[in-house]
Amino acid sequence: MKNYRSALSSKLRNLVLSGRLFHTIKLYNVQGSSHFKKNGFTLIELIIVLIIIAVASSLVGIFILRGSGNLELKSFTKYVSASLRYARNLSVAEKKVYSLIIWKDKGAYGLYADLTHIDDIEEASPVFQKNIPELLQIIFDNGADHLRIDFFPRGDSSGGAIEITNQKGAAFLIMVNRITGRIVVTKINK
Questions:
Q1: What pairs with residue 79 in β-bridges?
Q2: Are 63 and 129 in contact (CB under 8 A)?
Q3: Which fold has domain 69-188?
Q4: How far apart are CA 156 and CA 5, in angstroms?
Q5: CB 158 within 8 A of CB 150
Q6: CATH 3.55.40.10: which residues of the chain?
Q7: CA distance 52 to 68
Q8: CA distances from 26 to 9, 13, 33, 34, 127 (A)
Q9: What is the mean pLDDT of each run of 10 residues along the chain (190 residues)?
């Protein structure tokens, strides 16, 4: 055992004298546990990323809420224009007169089939009836409190214009051509 210790101490002495012991220890520290690799994110980096995500999502929420009034106006205008197109297509396909009636006082609009033989519209059953959103205002070209647009089997119509506005002043105009029955939607700049 003594020979083993003396052999080990003589090797250590030779390494110290030659300067290779310091080099061996330094190499071990670089590759060993004292200088470990950075494989993850620090807590501060994660917190900063979470703050950025929170700020960005709150800004997106503000912009969505700010544009919701215009969104309701656009979607309702699309519903009405699609209903008018549907009435025209049904009229041509089924060879019947279809009428789209909008009531301001009831806050609703509906599609009716073949109202020519019915005296009172209240007695007729609608193909569909939908409500007008409360925040929107509808203005007709005839100035009345209701508007009836008839579509005939040849594709023509009684014609009309519907202006839909919201509380912010944004507006769309839906025009129905008398001769062709085509529906055109335009944005009005006020």
A1: none
A2: no
A3: minor pseudopilin epsh fold (3.55.40)
A4: 113
A5: yes
A6: 69-188
A7: 25
A8: 20, 17, 12, 10, 88
A9: 58 60 49 57 91 91 72 92 94 93 90 77 80 89 84 93 90 94 90
